[in-house]
Design a protein that fits this description.
single chain, alpha+beta, four-stranded mixed beta sheet, 14 strands
């Protein structure tokens, strides 16, 4: 069963092709309406005072512009489709690469460990960190007091009793706490802002209708959520789009959401 890496992280995607197709459909409707109006006007004009040639030419010019607009829209759709195909082919090179992505759910291999990154409001004095399994049961927990800035967290795959856990998907849950142990809220009564990211190696690629998904075990990571990639073949660090900031190597930072939470 495939599990989303963004269990508690809201990441919205866009479908550019759908928007383009909708625009083309609207232009086609306008085209048909224009043609109907023009032919009706020609059929019902006053024979003693026919349409002047300059007006007729002007309407034909508008007719041609509408037709060109429809064709331009179709060409744009073709270009978008080509870009999507190139993006899909590019995604195949990510197999074996180490990726960082926005998300809170990662896949644990038997005897392995999980790597996460998180960023939380700097005014938070204490943090309860939990690892939960797919049923929502807390497997591991600890409390931290040094939580300011971008943090790395590696879970060794064992519960608090030191017992190794089974292979599967595990979610990192952060619970900001006030100094007295209550749930943290700022001066305005709002909860702390925070962001979570996962780190793992890509096993395979799924190509869907709306996005490309990189698989870490049975965890599906949307391509749009990537913040950093370390290609396995040449060790090159890359980043996906302009949504995130970071430097090369293991110390690269997460996305804008993580920066804003700092």
């Amino acid at each position: 069963m495939t599990i989303s890496s963004t269990t508690n992280v809201n990441v919205a995607g866009s479908n550019t092709n759908a928007a383009s197709s909708n625009s083309a459909s609207q232009l086609a409707q306008n085209f048909d309406t224009f043609l109907t109006l023009l032919t009706t006007q020609l059929k019902n004009q006053d024979p003693t005072s026919p349409m002047e040639s300059d007006k007729f030419t002007d309407q034909l010019s508008q007719f041609a512009q509408v037709e060109q607009g429809i064709q331009s829209n179709k060409n744009l759709e073709n270009l978008l489709a080509m870009q999507s195909q190139q993006r899909q082919l590019s995604a195949l090179s990510y197999v074996g690469a180490e990726i960082e992505a926005v998300g809170d759910t990662n896949w644990l291999d038997e005897g392995g460990e999980l790597k996460y990154k998180y960023n939380i409001s700097p005014e938070v004095p204490r943090l309860q960190l939990q690892i939960q399994d797919q049923s929502g049961k807390t497997i591991y927990s600890e409390e931290l007091t040094e939580v300011s800035g971008l943090q790395d967290f590696t879970w060794d795959g064992k519960n608090n009793s030191g017992v190794a856990q089974a292979e599967g998907a595990y979610t990192l849950v952060l619970k900001p706490m006030a100094a007295n142990g209550d749930t943290f809220k700022d001066e305005k009564g709002k909860p702390a802002s925070m962001a979570i990211g996962i780190i793992g190696n890509v096993d395979s690629v799924d190509i869907g209708d709306d996005d490309i998904y990189l698989r870490i075990g049975d965890v599906s990571v949307p391509f749009a959520t990537l913040t950093n990639v370390k290609l396995g073949a040449n060790g090159t660090d890359t980043s996906n789009g302009g949504d995130t900031g970071g430097s090369d190597g293991d110390d690269s930072s997460g996305n804008d959401e993580q920066d804003e939470a700092a």
